[in-house]
Fold this sequence. Notes:
8 helices, 140 residues, Endonuclease III, domain 1, globular, mainly alpha, 0% strand
Amino acid sequence: MxxxxxxxxxxxxxxxxxxxxxxxxxxxxxxxxLVVAVMLSAQCTDERVNKTTPAxxxxxxxxxxxxxxxLIELEQFIHPCGFYKNKAKNIKACAKKIVEDxxxxxxxxxxxxxxxxxxxxxxxxxxxxxxxxxxERNCS
Length: 140
């Protein structure tokens, strides 16, 4: 059964009414920390990500920190989350783009977020909602 746009919006609104306190289960303090946590959560549990990120974010938390971190050191931190080599490359490339193209600030639009390496629409939607309180309603 295929739902139309209005049916999907109504479904989402019903979920919001039913679960008003639902929030993202990833732990983060800054928008960039959520970007990293969401990237790490691919093919990994949020529980595992939340066990991995405290030590990482205690030492590195800004985009510039992740530009400067040695790739092998980053891989060692995130190894428990799986696919650590690709994730580390994407995290560093994402941080570099944020520093160079967005003055070190996590972008606030879907169009900008999906230009970041390792960030697709699903990740961008989580970031938009959890950090900026924006829900994309582009249901096609």
